[in-house]
Design brief:
It contains 17 helices and 32 strands. It is an alpha/beta fold. Among the domains are: about 70 residues, no CATH class; about 140 residues, Rossmann fold (3-Layer(aba) Sandwich), CATH 3.40.50. It has a 20-stranded parallel sheet, with no helix packed on it. The longest helix has 25 residues. The two termini are about 45 Å apart. The N terminus is likely disordered. Keywords: Disulfide bond, Glycoprotein, Immunity, Inflammatory response, Innate immunity, Leucine-rich repeat, Membrane, Receptor, Repeat, Signal, Transmembrane, Transmembrane helix.
């Protein structure tokens, strides 16, 4: 018995835990994904089972993780605990989670990290620990057992020390993110133990340890991103005693602060990293006027950077900025240059002529105007340029813009969108190789032969065009979105067109001639595209006719009435099967056909209601509540009667009302296997003759005995005695 008691106790405890889990986190019920975030929980709910693979407990008030909290959740793949108040974790809390791939403990109150937490997380790939309150990672590595780790996020505003052994055990990371905004001590060699890092992001305000970190990453990191740094004025080398080849290819500065002096020094130091091919500066501040140490920069040799991207650089008094004379020797190897959203208004001609290898130039969202463009794109400048983006500037004259750009002998891709040209001349001069031209959002009212005939791709979207009739024999793609076109461009002038976009125009009809091109002629438009208004009108008419037909059919066949009756029947099935004794008013409810009313009302009622003691019968003619819906009357009367008398006859089985009374009462009368139903056979009825819709009656007559109304008076006396006995039973 004690074993049974123990099993019962365990089952009861499990059931109780399941109830607590369902109450604390309803989404956990019968689901592999358990989302319990932002529910005000201060504990991990009990009852977690092996079927759960994702558990989200983020944004709660959990303070402590105990050993038993996750014991049964052995199949968890993701555990999200960020943004709680967790300050302590039992050492073996995560021990059962050998299949866990993602663990997020960020933005909590952990004052230290224990290697024992992660000792059994052999499958862990993503670990997020940033935003806690630990000041270091301990004396050893908390991550030594995480051989499959792919991404690691750590650090916080209090994080101040990185020690040599902190990253031992980690060999390869796709992403390493460190908040070292107040990092003050870095032991040389700490990050060297990681053999390969694809992308590392470090928030580092202390520029004095920047060079030490870079030295450790030269052979492991592919892309290094440094934020909020303010570089010091020092000449510490970045590659001291480091053997080549290096791995680092891209360096990004975000929200960094430079002066004329530190930027000159940075350019010199970065040349030491011979593998560096891409340099990026985003949302940085440059305090100075461009008085760079150009002679020192030139003496330091060639730069290996091929791609330079500058976005949203802030230069106070940028209009006083020097022209960077002396930097010519540093730019002739650049292949891609992007300076966006940085108030560029001119590039000196002398400097522009030294971009001899540049293939791609992006000056979008700047302050270039036509008279300065003449200086920026002077004769002999940008000799190798193939792609030019001048969108979102302040260019006003398309004719002048085309003239200056025609000086670029190899240009084939030009974007001058979002400049307010307003007008377009009849003739323009363009570079001969030009194949791609973007003139979208330039306010041009029409297209003219200013558009070069050599184009393969043309975008004139978002203008005021009312027609398009250019002869462009090589054009393959044409974009005309958001214009005022009423007809399609002719097919014959653009015979090689393979892509056409005409969305958001005023097209209302198409002519056959518009589809005479060899390829465009194969296009078949749907009826909706050709006659939209007609199709919509026809659909509305059809919908109206269908609704009208449904209303007529419903009215003829009393559909609404049947629906109401079905609803009442469903409601009746929900009610308790027995009414309370105080609500029972009748000995029997009588269900009969109107054609049998003479026998019921003049013979049976008189015999039973004048008996001693008298029986109380419920008849629909006499006892139904006036004004109440008949279905509700039937249901209430059956519920308030101890018995139900069914007076069966040929007329009964032909009556719809009798069928409904039988249906409404069936679930109470017969499902309980009681004797609440009394059947009186007023005249012989063959079971086979009963219609199929009276299936319940057929079943009843095959399983229950019934009283037959006899012809002789002697047998009738026995009939009444048997009926009274049945009513009293």
């Amino acid at each position: 018995t004690w074993q049974v008691l123990a099993i019962y106790t365990v089952l009861a405890a499990n059931l109780s835990e399941q109830q607590v889990l369902k109450q604390a986190c309803p989404s956990c019920d019968a689901s592999q994904l358990c989302n319990c975030s932002s529910m005000g929980l201060d504990f991990i709910p009990p009852g977690l089972t092996a079927k759960i693979t994702v558990l989200n407990l983020a944004h709660n008030r959990i303070k402590h993780i105990q050993s038993q909290d996750l014991q049964q959740a052995v199949n968890l793949r993701a555990l999200l605990l960020q943004s709680n108040e967790i300050s302590s974790i039992d050492e073996d809390s995560f021990q059962p989670l050998a299949k866990l791939e993602l663990l997020d403990l960020s933005n909590n109150s952990l004052a230290h990290l224990s290697p024992l937490w992660f000792g059994h997380l052999f499958s862990l790939q993503h670990l997020r620990l940033q935003g806690n309150s630990y000041r270091d990672l301990g004396q050893s590595s908390p991550f030594s057992s995480l051989r499959n780790l792919s991404s690691l996020y750590l650090g916080n505003p209090q994080f101040s020390v990185i020690r040599q052994a902190n990253f031992e055990g980690i060999e390869l990371l796709d992403k390493l993110w460190i908040d070292g905004s107040n990092l003050s001590q870095y032991e040389q060699g700490s990050l060297k133990s990681i053999k390969e890092i694809n992308h590392m992001i470090i928030n580092l305000r202390n520029g004095n340890i920047f060079s030490d970190i870079v030295k450790d990453l030269l052979h492991s990191v592919t892309w290094l991103e440094v934020t909020e740094i303010k570089l010091p004025v020092e000449n510490k080398t970045l590659v001291q005693n480091s053997s080549r080849p290096f791995r680092i290819q891209k360096l990004t500065f975000k929200e960094a602060f430079f002066t004329d002096q530190t930027i000159s020094q940075t350019i010199v130091l970065l040349k030491e990293i011979t593998s560096l091919k891409e340099l990026e500066a985003i949302n940085c501040v440059l305090e100075g006027k461009g008085m760079w140490k150009t002679e020192e920069i030139a003496r330091s040799g060639q730069s290996f950077v091929e791609t330079l991207t500058i976005t949203k650089i802030m230069i106070q008094n940028f209009h006083l900025f020097f022209d960077l004379e002396g930097m010519e020797s540093q730019i002739n190897k650049l292949k891609r240059l992007s300076i966006a959203s940085s108030n560029v208004f001119m590039v000196p001609c002398k400097l522009a002529r030294h971009f001899s290898s540049l293939l791609y130039l992006d000056f979008h969202d700047n302050l270039l105007v036509n008279n300065r463009l003449d200086e920026t794109i002077c004769e002999g400048s940008w000799p190798s340029l193939q792609t030019l983006n001048l969108s979102q500037n302040s260019l006003k004259s398309l004719e002048q813009t085309a003239e200056y750009i025609s000086r670029l002998p190899k240009l084939n891709n030009l974007d001058i969108s979002q400049n307010n040209f307003g007008e377009i001349p009849d003739v323009c001069e363009w570079p001969k190789p030009l194949k791609y031209l973007n003139l979208s959002s330039t306010q041009i009212p029409k297209v003219t032969t200013c558009i070069p005939p050599t184009l393969e791709v043309l975008d004139v979207s978002r203008n005021n065009l009312k027609e398009f009739g250019l002869q462009l024999p090589f054009l393959k793609e044409l974009y005309l979105t958001r214009n005022q076109l009423k007809t399609l461009p002719g097919a014959a002038p653009i015979p090689n067109l393979v892509a056409l976009s005409v969305r958001r125009n005023k097209l209302n009809s198409f002519s056959k001639e518009e589809f005479e091109g060899a390829r465009v002629g194969a296009v078949h438009l749907s009826l909706m595209e050709c006659h939209r208004s007609l199709v919509v009108s026809l659909i509305c008419v059809l919908v109206f006719l269908v609704i009208l037909l449904l209303v007529a059919v419903g009215y003829k066949y009393h559909v609404v009435w049947y629906l109401r009756m079905t609803w009442a029947w469903l409601q009746a099935k929900r009610k308790p099967k027995r009414a309370p004794p105080k609500d029972v008013c009748y000995d029997a409810f009588v269900s009969y056909s109107e054609n049998d009313s003479d026998w019921v009302e003049n013979t049976m009622v008189r015999e039973l209601e004048q008996a001693c003691p008298p029986f109380r019968l419920c008849l629909h003619k006499r006892d139904f509540v006036p004004g109440k819906w008949i279905v509700d009357n039937i249901i209430d009367s059956i519920e308030k009667s101890r018995k139900t008398l069914f007076v069966l006859s040929e007329h009964f089985v032909q009556s719809e009302w009798c069928k409904y009374e039988l249906d409404f009462s069936h679930f109470r009368l017969f499902d309980e296997n009681n004797d609440a139903a009394i059947l009186i056979l007023l005249e012989p009825i063959q079971s086979k003759a009963i219609p199929k819709r009276f299936c319940k009656l057929r079943k009843i007559m095959n399983t229950k005995t019934y009283l037959e109304w006899p012809a002789g008076e002697e047998q009738q006396q026995m009939f009444w005695e048997n009926l009274k006995g049945a009513l009293n039973s």
